[in-house]
């Protein structure tokens, strides 16, 4: 699993807030660097991965982002290992890079915003954290010259 890297091409991302019973999903792209809650998948096992597969086909992401929980002091716990396993499963099934983001307090933050779908909102918070960690790249293209700026 790798960290964020800047790129000149616009790339779409899907982010996941993993839970045993539900997985929140968000999307965003590298052009706007704005995450949007998408939905919560309330399924387990193969049904969960089938639904994720549909989303991967629909959104064609360049990479996936998975929230990994830690204790407030940074220590790992059982759900840390589960979320990492989920990330490895995503990588293996969909052959996409998976980036991990520390998900401490994402649900608390989603609650403070009054989110109706906490899981999807938490996934959006995770994806926004990922975007915020990407260094700002300089524009690759400059605007076309106006008629008064063109050489004669």
UniProtKB/TrEMBL annotation:
It is found in: Cytoplasm. The keyword Ribonucleoprotein does not apply. Could be a nuclease involved in processing of the 5'-end of pre-16S rRNA. Residues 11-110 form the YqgF/RNase H-like domain. The keyword Cytoplasm applies. HAMAP family: Nuclease_YqgF. InterPro entries: RNaseH-like_sf, YqgF, YqgF/RNaseH-like_dom, YqgF/RNaseH-like_dom_sf. Keywords: Cytoplasm, Hydrolase, Nuclease, Ribosome biogenesis. GO terms for molecular function: hydrolase activity, acting on ester bonds; nuclease activity. Its EC number is 3.1.-.-. Pfam families: RuvX (PF03652). Transmembrane segments: none annotated. This is Putative pre-16S rRNA nuclease. It is an enzyme of class 3 (hydrolase). It comes from the Bacteria. Belongs to the YqgF HJR family. GO terms for biological process: rRNA 5'-end processing. Its main location: cytoplasm. One of its GO terms (cellular component) is cytosol.
